[in-house]
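[audit] Reproducing an earlier prediction to check determinism. Same input, same settings, fresh worker. If the tokens differ from the archived copy the diff job will pick it up downstream; this log only records the rerun itself.
[audit] input (292 residues):
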Amino acid sequence: MRPEQLSVESLQAFVAVVDTGAFSAAAERLYLTQPAISKRIQSLEATLERPLFERQGRRVRPTEVAERLLPEAREILARLRAIEQQIADLDTVVHGRIRLATSHHIALHRLPGPLAAMRARYPDLELSLAFMDSETGVEAILRGDADLALATLPDDLPGDVEAETVWTDELVPMIARGRNSETPLDTLERLKQWPAILPPVDSTTRRHIEQSLSAQGQPPRAAQESPYLEVIHMMIGAGLGIGFLPRSMATDDLIVLDWPGSAITRSLGWVRHAQRYRSRTVDAVIEALQSR
């Protein structure tokens, strides 16, 4: 191996290909052409004198060498980024680029105000937004692929991350207004007879809902799933079933039902890697979120 030929660009391309599973998708992520990605991977393979990927049609699969290289490559890139931020923080003006992972719901319903405030106060601050579900956002923090994640906070956080609640949602059962004219039923009876429309089974929000349902002796029936609360809102409004949404999402076409159990809540907030350098840009974003 010739370590002097290892480059940041080749490692960035390598990590992007692993994460996306395809050279074309990696090129889109890094705003490069596919030939440029291929050239960087070929250069890295020549340096290591080992193949890094096995081609499977349009997809690629990491070799054993790539699997061993991946955590080291992520760590190198994270350290280099930390050095860049420490140098940037020597200036008195907040500037630089921060990679922010956020769920669609938070981006639509919670971020517009803080983003506008940040833009006005820190015109030299560049925000790169990546939309993903909350669980994937926490994983991105652990991998070093994001500087800050805005997510539904899990009940048990990994040891390497720190988090703080910024918003709290109360989740309430809702149905389409047109369905309320049918035979009167209480909420638990509706849950017995109608399909539930819920977030994915592996999500924190789903677990909170199911825990409350179980406490009432009522597991969800024939649940339909969507990771997007806005899609669940649409499906409920179309009369396809009953679902639980943040009270703030109630609209004229939906009716909020009484819930006999304890309030179902979830915490939304920021997550970052506890062992990484906490830059001035990250602090500026956190301050804007918490002074909403």
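[audit] rerun output stored. Observation attached for the diff report: The CA atoms of residues 168 and 267 lie 5 Å apart.
[audit] end
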